[in-house]
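Kindly go through the following sequence and its backbone structure tokens. Advise at your convenience whether the structure tokens fit the sequence:

___
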Amino acid sequence: MSYQVHERNDFTKEISSEFLKSVYGYMFSALAISGIIAYFAGTPAFFKEWFVSASGGISPMFYIVAFAPVALGWFIQGAYNRLSLGALMFLFVVYSALMGLSLSVVFLAYSEATIASTFFISAGAFGGMAIWGIRPRPI
């Protein structure tokens, strides 16, 4: 991507469009990853196996999964200048998967149809905005 800067140091519309297209594409991918992970981890059997201790209480794994996205978000925010793009992309995928795991408990409270429609509407909105960003426009 070539950056074109006007005299006032403003980015051109092409740069803005390319940036927004990539952001919406990343968000579409992150929602898809989170949704798939949450769907497969959101079963009572999975919850009982991984998040309930032998004594019947909440296991430490539940708290790890619940707070890991926050810790990873802080880490990414503090280290993004020192990390390579590949490392950041890997951490973004891990963050998306952790969000899916932490949100999987929602499947225990709501019907699958309600949750699936919410995830797919959100992912579809980001996908649609990414497509809108790459559409040809008159110059």
